[in-house]
Amino acid sequence: MTTPPTAKAPRPHPLHALRASAFAIGALLLLAAIGVVVHQPLLIPPIAASAALVHGAPGLPISQPRNVIGGHLLSAAIGFGTLAVTGSTAWAAAIAAGLALGAMMLCHLSHSPAVASTVVVVLQAPDPWPFLPLLALSTVLLVAIGLLPGRIGGHPVRYPLSW
Prior knowledge:
- The chain is built from six helices and no strands.
- The protein is mainly alpha-helical.
């Protein structure tokens, strides 16, 4: 018994790749500037991974606004809960990441980069009051900027496909 060959996704048009890159760079520069101003640059890695999905694969379910925003906030909340119970250790970060993945799946909020937010919370132990609003603002801005390519320049995939 042989497995059928997997179909490769078609290569994107170079202008589509350029547009996606330009909007992702713009979003990340804005979010990096906000992170630097409020002394929270650790949000950049998980948000950068989210930007890659929102701008590079806007049609995927994990790229939709509900998943991006909800996934990050749920994961961060799990990170803070784990941190309160276990303290800040690599072991706790690993447990929190697994719990975040399961919770996102159960809540239909799967967004793989959000697991990195959980790890950031557990390992860095930021104050939740500035961290959570900044995370919410970052994800909302990322989604808002993700809306632009389809409205300017004829992005081939409409974003969002669902809220």
